Structures are given as C-alpha cells and as structure tokens.
Amino acid sequence: MEVIICANEEQVGRIAAARIASALARRPDPVMGLATGSSPLGTYAALKERVDAGTLNLSNATFFALDEYLGLPRTDPNSYAETIRRTFTEPLGVDPQRVHVPVGDAEDTDASCEQYEAAIAAAGGIDVQILGIGSNGHIGFNEPGSSFTSRTRTKTLTARTRADNARFFGPGFVPTHCVTQGLGTIMDAGRLVLTALGEAKAEAVAAAVEGPVSAMCPASILQFHRYATVVVDEDAASHLQLKDYYRDSFALLPQGRRPV
User: Fold this and answer.
1) 10 Å Cβ neighbour count for 196?
2) Which terminus of the chain is more exposed, N or C, with fewer CB under 10 A?
C-alpha cells in the first residue's frame, strides 16, 4: 500500500488526480469508479484542471458510482446520482449517458444490483476506483461486518453513518438503507485511490492502513490490494504510527514515479 501525506486538501486532490490520470491513460476507453462525499471534491477539481488543459481526455471513459441511498429517486437533490451530476459530470463536461449510478428506487432491487455488476463486467472492469472512508472505516457503504467477498447489494446503514450524514437531510429524515458496490467488487478494480481529510477520519485511516485486516474496519481490506494508494492530509494522518516512514517513502520515489 502506498501512503502519501499531504500538507493540505489542494495537494491531496492534485496527487490523487495524478495517480488516477496515470491509471486511466493505460486504456483508450478506461473505466473509472466514482465516490461521493467531501473527500473526493479536491480530486475532481484537479481532474477538471487536467481536462481543461487538454492533458486528460475523458470522452471515451465510462463511470460507475459506488453507492446510492435506497428509496431515493435519481432526481432527489440528496441522491448520489444528483450529487455525482453536480460535482463531477457537469463540471468535467462528461457525457451523462456514460455515468452509471446504482438505482435507489428500483422495483426489484436484487435484480438491479445484479445488472449493475454485469454492467461493470461488460465495460471491462473498473481501471481505477476512487474511495473515501467513513469514520467507522466503511468504504462505499460497506459497513463494519461486511463480507470481504460481497458484491453490489443493499445494506443497512449504521447509526454512526446515519449521524454523520444527517447534515445533508432535513430534520427527522435520514435514509436507513443503501445500495452499494461490495468489497469484492471494489477489490476487482485495477487501482484503488482513497483520499481522506481531517481529524475525524484519523482513527479510521490508521485502522485501515496499519491495523489488522478485519471486517470491523472494511477499508483494511485495501492492505490486500496490489495497487492501493491512500492520500491524506496531515490531520487525517495524525494517528498513523509510521508517518515519518511514509513521508520518506514518497520523498525518495524515483523522479518518474512522482505524481505531477
């Protein structure tokens, strides 16, 4: 696992975008996994800069979002379909027909989940998956206790996740369930890039990077991925025991491997 500690959110986004762009460049029709939340916003901004500068072409790319709230239609302002549209699809000028999000209000949710898995496979698999991390260590909405071999499915959200997400919803309503790519689905991606910001994520980051691999911290499964990169700011890195080693590892990278 590659761990990169950055001075601020802007640097996190820039370095994550460099790793993502490098992975996408390996295919003429790449497939990219999208995350929501605040952590990837700087990454999306840095990717937009590359698109605007003409150094990144996403016109032939296909995109798959990690998750969606169960019961919310795509047009709901708090749906992840709408969030992806606002924060990624429109700012980067991506064809919305190439952006796929799990269906939160499908008549047959189980069938819809199977179709989502089939669509990812038909696209050739995900080349690079962007990830955030919840304060309880979840990735996607794979809450603690999730199976490491799980595929796209419905999940019940923990009380901690609902509390963390309550700020996005009106008083008295926070979704209790979701549709999410499974940990097995996520681990099939060619490269994983996880970003985290702030002290609130420090405990989860430390458990994911340095703790035992355990279903109690779903993000710890990234330790088993061949190409996983974790990019964090100083606050999110504050509980890591090997901070100095990670800084040295990045500083001593050969010139050709340094993100630009």
Assistant:
1) 27
2) C
Whether this model's pTM surpasses 0.70: yes
**78 among known catalytic residues:** no
pLDDT at residue 259 greater than cutoff 90: no
Catalytic residue among 9, 82, 100, 138: 138
Question: Is 136 annotated in the active site?
Answer: yes
The DSSP secondary-structure symbol of 107 reads: S
Q: Which residue is catalytic, options 82, 127, 143, 233?
A: 143
- Is 138 a catalytic site residue? yes
Cα–Cα distances in angstroms (integers) from residue 171 to residues 36, 82, 100, 167, 168, in the given order: 22, 20, 30, 9, 10
Tell me, yes or no, if 127 is annotated catalytic.
Answer: no
Instruction: Set out the domains of the chain in order of their start, with CATH numbers.
Output: 2-253 (3.40.50.1360)
Give yes or no for residue 29 having a pLDDT over 60: yes
